Amino acid sequence: SDHRPIWAQAAFPTIDGSSRDRSDDATTLAVSVASHNVQEMVEDGVSTYVSSMTCVHGSKGSGHAARLISAMLSGPARVRHTQRVLDMLRSQLVEDGSADTPPIDAVCLQEVDRELLRAIQAEAKSTGWSVHANATAQESESGTGRCSAITAIVSRDPPMRVLPDVVVEVTGSKKKRIKVRRHAAVVLKNGVALVSVHVRHCEKVSSH
């Protein structure tokens, strides 16, 4: 993806220090979260990425973009993409006993296609992860190659509760069309509210 990954750690003061997830200070709650845009593997999403590549930029009419899009959406490429995302989740959510690589509490995902979401949900059945996706994931598949704009949160432990999607509406410059994005939200087991946000960049501005 052309979006950079995020890994954030935060510490919050607690009222009585009763949380099980503590830092060195018994009255501080430590939370570790990662966020990844995992590149929705549909024509609409892949074409946006391909058009930003140096080897394609300025080559209109050469067929470079069409060949790259076809290759990226091929069966083997899609399987490899899914496997890499699952490997990433395992590396960040599974506790391996190493003090240098403590597991992350939750991973936020953006631009998740339905095929990948099903693979993550299947993996969660064996690992015990909790997977929550926004309401868009429940809509019927259009089959048109358009992005579904699914956001999700994968956590090591079941959340305390699932929150309604955080809905953001942006008015586009073309014909004043309103673009809607729904962001998955939960309250983690430690009481921290988390939202998987895919921020839209301004019109005609690169998302790099």
Structure overview:
With 208 residues, the chain is α+β, with helices and mostly antiparallel strands. 24% of the residues lie in helices and 28% in strands. It contains four helices and eight strands, in the order ββαααβαβββββ. The chain has helices spanning 43-50, 64-72, 75-93, 114-127, and strands at residues 6-13, 28-37, 106-112, 130-133, 150-155, 161-171, 178-187, 193-195. A five-stranded mixed sheet has the order 1-2-3-5-4. Strand 7 (178-187) and strand 8 form a beta hairpin. Helix 1 crosses helix 2. The longest helix is centred in the middle third of the chain and has 19 residues, at 75-93.
Q: Could you give a quick summary of the protein structure above?
A:
24% of the residues lie in helices and 28% in strands. By secondary structure, the chain is α+β, with helices and mostly antiparallel strands.
Strand segment tally: 8
Strand order, biggest sheet? 1-2-3-5-4
Output mean pLDDT: 81
Number of helices: 4
Topology as H/E string? EEHHHEHEEEEE
Note the beta-strand portion: 25-35%
Anisotropy-based shape: globular
Low-confidence stretches: none
Radius of gyration: 19 Å
Q: Whole-Å distance between the termini?
A: 9 Å
Largest sheet properties: 5 strands, mixed
Output the structural class: alpha+beta
Helix content: 10-25%
Main features:
24% helix; single chain; 208 residues; 5-stranded mixed β-sheet; alpha+beta; 8 strands
How do the strands and helices of this protein lay out in sequence?
Elements: E1 6-13, E2 28-37, H1 43-50, H2 64-72, H3 75-93, E3 106-112, H4 114-127, E4 130-133, E5 150-155, E6 161-171, E7 178-187, E8 193-195
Parallel strand pairs: 2-3
Antiparallel strand pairs: 1-2, 3-5, 4-5, 6-7, 7-8
